[in-house]
Design goal:
- The chain is α+β, with helices and mostly antiparallel strands.
- The chain has 2 domains: 84 residues, Orthogonal Bundle (Arc Repressor Mutant, subunit A); 42 residues, no CATH class.
- It is built from 5 helices and 3 strands.
- β2 and β3 form a beta hairpin.
- The longest helix is centred in the N-terminal third of the chain and has 23 residues.
- Bound molecules: iron/sulfur cluster.
- Iron/sulfur cluster binds next to α5.
């Protein structure tokens, strides 16, 4: 349960975003200063319970912003949280399907009847042969 009055009322989404931003700020500072922060210490500073703290940590880890490592603190097993540098942040990859769409078979009205040995045969198809020759010339 979110106990911190800063996060009570208003939009729940905004509260979570504010909480994440505050948590990241604390973790980033702690990582610079001492290599990380024990998660219970983070929850104490944020004034949240372990249930919400666990959810918060999971969200930040999924975003690639946080690293969590098992440790022992004051004789108890717990986790230390470290800020993940930018190199560990999620990467956006753009993939173009244009080269695939150039394959004539994708737009061919005979594809349902095309097969080796049939009337429409890919081993004798002029459209496919032309496409393969073009692709081969691009490789050279
Ligand atoms: S091989 Fe030729 S006939 Fe067969 S599906 Fe591809 S383009 Fe159409």
């Amino acid at each position: 349960m979110l106990r911190n009055p800063q996060f009570g009322g208003g939009s729940q989404i905004k509260s979570y975003q504010s909480l994440e931003e505050r948590a990241l700020e604390i973790i980033r500072d702690a990582t610079k200063r001492s290599g990380g922060i024990v998660q219970s210490e983070l929850w104490r500073i944020l004034d949240i319970d372990s249930r919400d703290g666990g959810k918060l940590v999971t969200r930040l880890m999924r975003k690639g912003l946080l690293l969590r490592e098992a440790t022992t603190h004051r004789g108890r097993k717990t986790y230390i949280l470290r800020y993940a540098d930018d190199s560990r942040a999620p990467v956006s990859v753009s993939v173009s399907l244009n080269p695939v769409l150039e394959v004539p078979c994708f737009t061919c009205r005979h594809i349902g009847r095309c097969g080796i040995g049939g009337y429409y045969d890919p081993t004798r198809c002029p459209l496919l042969t032309r496409y393969l020759l073009i692709m081969d010339s691009r490789r050279a």
